[in-house]
Design the sequence.
């Protein structure tokens, strides 16, 4: 069909794809020709039908979406003849086909465009050939229906979904995208596109669609102006992240300095630092500058900033005369890290459950079913009191920053630490109880879908221990954490009196090593997603207990735990970004190896020296691993790629 400018719609789409970042644009006469083109591709592939009318930004968002390698455009329009309906959960496409085949569960309609990652290109070629032949793709479930009749791009997408390719949904907000079938529909869609200011809409879209209460009403109302200014100044997301870190460090220093003026100034800097923490993500979405490095850095910087602030509060409370200021800071960093581990793995669990909807419904209802239904109702009631209460009670980062800033400005560091711990414990109890009930209902294993040894952070000793399969890895990890907990309680109770017996440290170590008996077991239980958090709790408690028993300065204990958190957040950040293990991961010794070294140092009477030495070593390994992963190895790979091209090899294109 000709557009208002006189060019054909397919030609305009081709031009838009180029402006959206496509390196090469081809018109495929049929699905067989498309399959041949895909076979030769070495980069992600964008596929569109010839009936899509949309802002160029819609295609650019699809091409640059960071949610996953394969992403499909999903619209809310009524499905046209032969169009593929879509059912999605948690942003993932879990069903695609004729609307009637989804039993009323359709949540949208395929928008006629998708981006397919390199790893999924063989499946795309297979789906194209099967759709061209009108057969079920090889590898699809035997019960899968043949590709439906309709536009080629819809048959292609239905076949790809039938092969089980993990596909994420790209929704259209504020911008315009429609599939058209006649000149009248084309004219209406073009008018709708022209009526929207594309740049202004993109700036609004840079703000998360759903965020927490404090961020929504006290940050996102004006942060887009900072985002726009940053883009005009040529600042990238990484630069804004670094400025945000500087603000947080300055706030921590002021909290440690004390004095009302310094505390108020620190609170203001903390708030501004959080605003910039939001701006870096908004800037990435506005400019479409996404990278694995940027995502990793944002995750690591968020945690480092928060824990540096805890250090400032702990030092400030101690300087103000409170003996256990550092102890509260250590408790805060331990609690928050264990909470984050449960958050990460519950998210993985929920995503896995969304990909396997049949497994979710096999429990026959019960309390888990009721909790899931209630949660979905609250989430759907956007803007209601219950919706905001649910988002606030879990104590997200915005609320933590706000609570710290307000309490430290009004009352001081000590009250701020108590407030963070109190709300954090309540939030942990609330989320832990509800998630445990829902996870038992879902019965979807997640640790057996990844390298469990890596995310358990097992060392050589744990790998050598026999597997105690009947007990289960979670029960072993929980029992293991009880030994260090008992040692810590005993050390705290006898701190001003008799010394803890020398044999208490090796006994607590032996109890901790019980967790290693679960290293070789299958992590397929409905609650085994809690194993990494339980192991982190056990290791942290043991390190703290050794520090207390060995009279290690509290600031040094905090520093050692802080280094451990960097290591563990590196692991979880790589899980979220689908990265491999850190290059020097083997050099970190595992939770078991580190605990044995600390115990030996405490037994010979050099707990402080041992903790400082081991912490410094781990920090050096972490920095070296970061340099290798993000600088050295990519540069080496780039040189190797250039060498292959110079030798006559094929350059990706």
Sequence:
């Amino acid at each position: 069909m000709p557009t208002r400018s006189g060019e054909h719609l397919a030609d305009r789409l081709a031009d838009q794809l180029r402006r959206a970042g496509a390196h090469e644009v081809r018109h495929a006469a049929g699905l067989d020709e498309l399959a041949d083109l895909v076979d030769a591709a070495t980069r992600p592939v964008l596929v569109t039908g010839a009936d899509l009318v949309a802002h160029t930004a819609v295609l650019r968002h699809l091409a640059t979406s960071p949610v996953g390698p394969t992403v499909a455009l999903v619209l809310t329009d009524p499905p046209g003849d032969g169009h593929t309906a879509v059912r999605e959960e948690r942003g993932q496409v879990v069903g695609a086909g004729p609307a009637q085949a989804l039993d009323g569960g359709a949540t949208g309609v395929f928008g006629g465009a998708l981006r397919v990652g390199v790893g999924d290109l063989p499946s795309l070629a297979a789906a194209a050939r099967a759709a061209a032949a009108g057969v079920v793709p090889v590898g699809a479930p035997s019960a899968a229906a043949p590709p439906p009749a309709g536009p080629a791009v819809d048959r292609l997408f239905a076949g790809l979904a039938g092969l089980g390719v993990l596909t994420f949904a790209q929704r259209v907000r504020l911008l315009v995208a429609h599939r058209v079938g006649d000149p009248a529909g084309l004219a209406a869609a073009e008018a709708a596109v022209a009526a929207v200011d594309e740049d202004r809409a993109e700036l609004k879209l840079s703000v998360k669609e759903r965020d927490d209460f404090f961020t929504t009403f006290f940050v996102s109302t004006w942060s887009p102006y900072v985002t726009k200014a940053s883009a005009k100044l040529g600042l990238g997301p990484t630069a804004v992240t670094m400025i945000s870190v500087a603000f947080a460090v300055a706030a921590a220093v002021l909290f440690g300095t004390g004095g009302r003026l310094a505390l108020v100034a620190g609170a203001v800097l903390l708030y501004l630092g959080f605003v910039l923490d939001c701006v870096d993500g908004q800037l990435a979405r506005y400019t479409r500058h996404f990278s694995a490095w940027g995502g990793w850095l944002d995750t690591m910087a968020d945690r480092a900033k928060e824990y540096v602030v805890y250090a400032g509060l702990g030092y400030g409370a101690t300087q103000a005369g409170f003996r256990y200021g550092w102890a509260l800071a250590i408790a805060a960093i331990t609690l928050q890290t264990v909470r984050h581990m449960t958050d990460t793995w519950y998210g993985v669990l929920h995503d896995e459950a969304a990909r396997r909807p049949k497994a979710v419904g096999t429990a026959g209802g019960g309390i888990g079913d009721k909790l899931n239904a209630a949660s979905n109702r609250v989430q759907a009631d956007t803007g209601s009191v219950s919706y905001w209460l649910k988002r606030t009670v879990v104590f997200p980062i915005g609320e933590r920053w706000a609570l710290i800033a307000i309490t430290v400005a009004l009352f001081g560091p000590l009250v701020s630490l108590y407030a963070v711990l109190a709300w954090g414990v309540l939030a942990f109890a609330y989320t832990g109880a509800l998630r445990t009930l829902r996870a038992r209902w879902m019965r979807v294993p997640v640790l057996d879908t990844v390298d469990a040894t890596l995310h358990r952070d097992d060392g050589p000793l744990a790998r050598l221990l026999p597997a105690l399969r009947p007990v289960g890895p979670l029960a072993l990890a929980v029992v293991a954490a009880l030994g260090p907990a008992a040692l810590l309680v005993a050390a705290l109770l006898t701190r001003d009196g008799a010394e803890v017996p020398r044999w208490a440290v090796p006994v607590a170590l032996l109890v901790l090593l019980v967790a290693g008996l679960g290293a070789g077991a299958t992590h397929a239980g409905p609650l085994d997603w809690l194993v990494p958090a339980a192991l982190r709790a056990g290791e942290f408690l043991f390190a703290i207990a050794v520090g207390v028993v060995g009279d290690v300065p509290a600031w040094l204990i905090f520093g050692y735990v802080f280094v451990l958190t960097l290591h563990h957040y590196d692991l979880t950040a790589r899980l979220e970004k689908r990265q491999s293990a850190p290059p020097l991961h083997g050099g970190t010794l595992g939770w078991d190896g580190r605990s044995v070294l600390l115990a030996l140092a405490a037994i010979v009477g050099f707990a402080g020296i041992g903790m400082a030495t081991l912490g410094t070593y781990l920090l050096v390994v972490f920095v070296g691993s970061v340099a290798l992963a993000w600088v050295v190895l990519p540069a080496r790979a780039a040189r190797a790629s250039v060498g292959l091209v110079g030798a006559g090899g094929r350059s990706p294109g």
Notes: The mean pLDDT is 89. The chain is about 60% helix and 5% strand. Residues 46 and 115 are 4 Å apart (CA to CA). The first strand starts at residue 45 and ends at 48.
